[in-house]
Amino acid sequence: MILYAAENGKFIEYTDAVAKLPQKKHNLYVNITNQCNCACTFCLRSLKKMPENHSLWLKKEPTISEIEAAFTHIDKNTVNEVVFCGFGEPTMRLETLISALQYVRKIWPEHNIRLNTNGLSSLYYNKDTAILFKDLLDTISISLNASNAQKYLAVTRTSLGLSAHKAMLKFAQECQKYIPHVILTIVDSIGREEITACQNLCQKYNLFLRIRPYEAN
Ligand code: SF4
Questions:
Q1: 98-128 residue pLDDT tens
Q2: Where are the beta strands (DSSP E) in 39-188?
Q3: Which of 15, 20, 44, 106 is the most exposed place for a label (fewest CB within 10 A)?
Q4: Atom of ligand 1 at shortest distance to CA of 36?
């Protein structure tokens, strides 16, 4: 599925969600890749079992033309927020992601667009990537995961190593220049002490922190 909605922990083709679910507006999730440079201990990719017809595993990564074509089947009046998040890290396909964001901005200028990311794109590509999202995103949600580099590496098991935590925080601060809402996230299952440490870290860098409930599978 490229475009989907989420309902009670299940993923549904967006067009099916509109036909079947009672609410009038849905978040429209955009799934462009299953690749990631992390291997988080809690990642749904390894933990969540999904029936074939509700699977976010892409048989083939969609091209920009295929992503654009998928949008032509959607009634924009049914869409609440457009969220690029997928079942992988969207910035692994940075060029396609930027093209898709430009396309959605052009066809639906009035809609909020959010990117959910691990925040490692600048480190991964060895350049400032935050500026690429200027005028294209209303919100960026970045997984903070942990309060320090060692804990972060233990949780994310990223191939980018110990420098990843610092790079992610720098990326978040860069994003504040270009994106109206920059949100860092942690899950509530990491323990009181670690939550407090993350709160202190975000306060230090003037970053907004959201503590979200851990999603059991
Ligand atoms: S960054 Fe996201 S997609 Fe990648 S392994 Fe972690 S939870 Fe999974």
A1: 999 999 999 999 999 999 999 999 999 999 9
A2: 79-84, 112-117, 139-143, 181-187
A3: 106
A4: 4
Say which residue, 104 or 18, is predicted with more confidence.
Answer: 104
Q: CB of 48 closer than 6 A to ligand 1?
A: no
pTM of this prediction?
Answer: 0.95
Would you put residue 191 in left (φ > 0), alpha (ψ -120 to 50) or beta?
left
Helix (H) or strand (E) holding 82: strand 79-84
Which pLDDT tens digit goes with each residue over 122-146?
Answer: 999 999 999 999 999 999 999 999 9
Q: Is domain 3-212 classified as CATH 3.50.50.60?
A: no
3-state class (DSSP) for residue 197: helix
Tokens matching residue 153: 């590496």
Q: What is the position in ligand 1's atom list of the atom closest to the CA of 88?
A: 3
Tokens 């809609």 belong to 111
**From ligand 1's centre to the CA of 107, what distance in Å?**
29
Ligand 1: does its nearest atom lie under 6 Å from the Cβ of 198?
no
Query: pLDDT tier at 7 (50, 70, 90 boundaries)?
Result: confident
* Rounded distance from Cα 156 to ligand 1 centre (Å): 7
Residue of 87, 184, 170, 84 lying closest to 130 (CA atoms): 170
Is any atom of ligand 1 closer than 6 Å to the C-beta of 187?
Answer: no
By alpha-carbon position, which residue is closest to atom 3 of ligand 1?
A: 88
The residue ranges of every structural domain in the chain are 3-212
**Among candidates 98, 147, 153, 142, which has minimal Cα distance to 118?**
142
